[in-house]
Amino acid sequence: MALAGTLAHCLTDRHSPYDLLHHPYTLSSMATAEAAHVPGDRLAKTLLLEDSQGYVAAVIPASHHLQIAALCEQTGRDLVLAHEDEIREVFKDCELGAIPPVAMAYGMRTYMDDTLLKHPDVYFESGNHQDLVHMSMDAFLDLMGEAEIGHFARRMM
């Protein structure tokens, strides 16, 4: 499986230029960055959150922690991290923990941390634990056009 079906459809619809980077199987974002030999600041990881209104996605660099309070303040919502079973239900065409950032294509609001925008290119999960999508920042911003940008992540120490 190279790309999740929803992601493939989204990339095709937007005529997004990208390439795939294959890497050894990993289970965490920073392990993926290391295995793929890419900086953690340039690897976008996607987290699923929820509240009584439904799901939202937060896209942050793999080298950062989500500051939920800051995201709650930005959104005006009382968000918590979604449970593993819910992630499987929402992202049915993805392996658990390999969620692509195009959560809009899965029907939810998406918030992207502005620290991702400091780089000329970005990498992100393809829907599995062995392939990353790589694209220019311009292409990524076009792909993520519906995402709201804010500041809600902090670098890990």
TrEMBL record:
Signal sequence bounds: none
InterPro entries in alphabetical order: YbaK/aa-tRNA-synt-asso_dom_sf, YbaK/aa-tRNA-synth-assoc-dom
Stretches of the chain forming a coiled coil according to its record: none
Highest taxon of source: Bacteria
Stored Pfam families: tRNA_edit (PF04073)
Domain YbaK/aminoacyl-tRNA synthetase-associated, chain residue ranges per copy: 25-142
Identification of the protein by name: Deacylase
Organism phylogeny: Bacteria, Pseudomonadati, Pseudomonadota, Betaproteobacteria, Burkholderiales
